[in-house]
Amino acid sequence: MNSLSELPPDGSTKAERLLLRELASRIDDELASAIDLVSKATDRCDAADARITLASVRDRLANHARLHHALQMPEFTTIVDLAAYLRLLCRSISRASLESEGIALSLLLHPQKVNSEQCWLLGVIVFELITGLARCLSRSGTGIIHLEMWGTATSIVCCMTDGGTSGEDWYRGETRDLVEMLAARLQGTIDICADSDGRRIMVSVPR
């Protein structure tokens, strides 16, 4: 997703959109090719242990392919349900990376209608923040990340919490730069706090 940092703050041009979609399509093709290659190797393998390992690799690649697809820029501007999109995205995140680390992701999402680009930008923010929290939790063992999303008369709010140790400075570098750039494009704000109960990140964007 690093190519997002190259988009102008006032929105991507048609050429840039076409380039991103073409790159995404090529990545989809490469993942599909890798999955097919591993599947064929699994079918040809006689050793039970090797078959199990190859099947696990195939399933992991398939989960990453679904996550990549969920994170792709929308082709058309339309109205979508943010809650439904976040459920799909979070299921993909869990299967691709969280479940293998023993990290659970709980959701409390209220239906909110937004345009597809706003939905996508929020989705990338949620992905980056959940991934950052998961890295911290994976170092200390299993944990739970809770995502809640609701709307007010003037804004939409996404709040992520965990029960991890508050002392680790995880919100920095590329994660911080990308999240703050995307929030700025949405004219939104990010509030982060940490205490003995863990970390809390609240993202608020205007309707």
What does this structure look like?
This protein has two domains: about 1-75; about 75-205, Histidine kinase-like ATPase, C-terminal domain (Heat Shock Protein 90, 2-Layer Sandwich), CATH 3.30.565. The protein is globular and about 60 Å long. It has five helices and seven strands; from the N terminus they run H-H-E-H-E-E-H-E-E-H-E-E. The chain has about 210 residues and is of the alpha+beta class. The protein has helices spanning about 15-45, 50-70, 80-100, 115-140, 175-185, and strands at about 80, 105-110, 115, 145-150, 155-160, 190-195, 200-205. Strand 4 (about 145-150) and strand 5 form a beta hairpin.
What is this structure's SSE topology?
Elements: H1 14-44, H2 48-70, E1 79-81, H3 82-98, E2 103-109, E3 113-115, H4 116-140, E4 143-151, E5 155-162, H5 173-185, E6 189-195, E7 198-206
Parallel strand pairs: 2-4
Antiparallel strand pairs: 1-3, 4-5, 5-7, 6-7
Helix pairs in contact: 1-2, 2-3, 3-4, 4-5
